[in-house]
Write a structure and sequence with these properties.
The protein is mostly helical. About 70% of the residues lie in helices and about 0% in strands. Helix 1 packs antiparallel against helix 2 and helix 1 packs across helix 3.
């Protein structure tokens, strides 16, 4: 049960990166790189246990975090 929740939360973050890279006009490179890295790490994890190596997992999470942070604009909307 916990494993599926973890995979679902990572998938939600990757989908947020994908939607951010599609909707943003400027600064779309980092979310695209994060989504691409997630795809590559996911495909590699099907064959090998690379995410069990701490350096790989921490680097992947840092890239994914940067992608999620850049997927939305930091400017306030007009309604705020």
């Amino acid at each position: 049960m916990f494993g599926s929740m973890l995979v679902a939360s990572v998938l939600a973050l990757v989908l947020r990166c994908i939607s951010g890279s599609i909707t943003r006009r400027h600064g779309m490179t980092v979310p695209r790189v994060a989504a691409s890295a997630a795809f590559l790490v996911g495909v590699h994890a099907l064959v090998d246990f690379s995410l069990q190596i701490q350096a790989v997992a921490l680097t992947f999470m840092a890239i994914l975090g940067a992608g999620v942070a850049q997927s939305e604009s930091s400017r306030l909307s007009l309604g705020d």
